[in-house]
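Retry 2 of 3 after timeout on previous attempt. Resubmitting structure tokens to design endpoint.
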């Protein structure tokens, strides 16, 4: 609700695609800068306690934003500053949530399903939140969206307080943070499968996924709609993401996870390209659902692959680079999308975003195929030498 309300408020006040991208940039850029540091820090400390503290600070941030909007203090610099603060908190909170799943799920084989169920929860909020925000924005006003977000932290903190999670203390000595970062980077560089997936996700986060930053412009200018139109578009993306997450949650085997990543990549790129030429709201909604399916299937599948294939001692750091490549580059892409859209137009910008997504997944497919072929050849040579 808050994300939808902030985007709509900024575009209503300014009419600027650049400022729309800048607010998204501010809310997510800390993930690019802080995620590796957060991963190293969390690996050596109690991540559950860190998450509890992050939720308390998030509540205070939400309260400040609610007060500002309630008293109609419409300051773009203040909105950007509070968005930046939320991004800093999320840099730690998201990694805590991801790595806590290993402590909450006893059987490693159940981890992919837990990740998918977590994605389902998150994306149900992406459906309900924007839809509810559209209703509230049109009837009660913007301030109620922000007040609602502030109050939502009360049950969240209560539930966390009631949880009983035993975190095993890390007895390893705490190294210098730069040493930790260097170790994590070198580990990923030598794990070609993991680094190729992170690079693919990074390209999509930088270029393709920020297409949704331009949705207020599609709703208001292209389709001459209202906040309800924008919330419909946001909910359509969320619906697709939930469909994808439910599908992944019901998978019994994850032998074809790379195939899922490739198919999802083509779905995302092609639907975004077609969206650029759509002149009907109904068709746009369908394409956004498909884009949501592709986006979430690819992201969740990559997350699952990293969590199940990374070495336990490097999991937090591997996830931190995943977060950096995913959430960290989206703000840069959002800012870039806003600048390009003001220069060449929204539709042409979205065409380029979709086309680059298709090229990226095609390059990944060819690289993965070549890597697996070389691996089979090496294995055959090794068997012959042994025999």
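Retry 2 succeeded. Sequence:
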């Amino acid at each position: 609700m808050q994300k939808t309300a902030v985007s709509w408020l900024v575009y209503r006040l300014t009419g600027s695609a650049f400022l729309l991208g800048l607010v998204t940039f501010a809310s997510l850029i800390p993930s690019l800068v802080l995620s590796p540091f957060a991963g190293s820090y969390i690996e050596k400390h109690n991540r559950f306690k860190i998450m509890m503290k992050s939720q308390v600070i998030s509540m205070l941030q939400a309260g400040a934003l609610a007060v500002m909007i309630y008293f109609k203090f419409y300051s773009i610099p203040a909105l950007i500053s509070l968005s930046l603060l939320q991004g800093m908190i999320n840099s730690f909170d998201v990694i805590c949530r991801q790595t806590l799943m290993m402590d909450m799920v006893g059987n490693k084989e159940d981890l992919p399903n837990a990740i998918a169920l977590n994605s389902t929860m998150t994306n149900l909020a992406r459906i309900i939140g924007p839809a509810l925000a559209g209703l509230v924005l049109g009837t009660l006003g913007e301030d109620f969206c922000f007040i609602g977000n502030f109050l939502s932290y009360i049950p969240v903190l209560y539930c966390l307080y009631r949880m009983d999670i035993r975190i095993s203390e890390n007895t390893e000595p705490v190294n210098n943070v730069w040493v930790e970062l260097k170790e994590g980077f070198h580990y990923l560089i030598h794990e070609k499968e993991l680094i190729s997936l992170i690079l693919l996700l990074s390209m999509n986060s930088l270029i393709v996924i920020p297409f949704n930053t331009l949705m207020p412009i599609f709703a208001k200018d292209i389709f001459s709609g209202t906040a309800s139109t924008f919330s419909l578009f946001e909910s359509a993306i969320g619906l697709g993401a939930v469909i994808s997450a439910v599908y992944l949650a019901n998978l019994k085997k994850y032998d074809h996870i790379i195939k899922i990543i490739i198919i999802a990549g083509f779905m995302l790129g092609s639907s975004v390209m077609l969206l650029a030429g759509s002149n009907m709201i109904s068709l746009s909604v369908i394409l956004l659902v498909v884009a949501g399916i592709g986006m979430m299937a690819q992201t969740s599948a990559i997350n699952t692959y990293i969590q199940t294939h990374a070495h336990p001692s490097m999991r937090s750091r591997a996830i931190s680079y995943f977060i950096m490549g995913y959430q960290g580059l989206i703000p840069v892409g959002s800012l870039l999308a806003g600048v390009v859209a003001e220069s060449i137009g929204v539709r042409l910008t979205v065409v380029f975003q979709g086309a680059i997504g298709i090229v990226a997944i095609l390059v990944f497919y060819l690289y993965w195929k070549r890597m697996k072929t070389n691996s089979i050849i090496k294995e055959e040579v090794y068997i012959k030498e042994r025999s």
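Attempt log closed. The radius of gyration is 21 Å.
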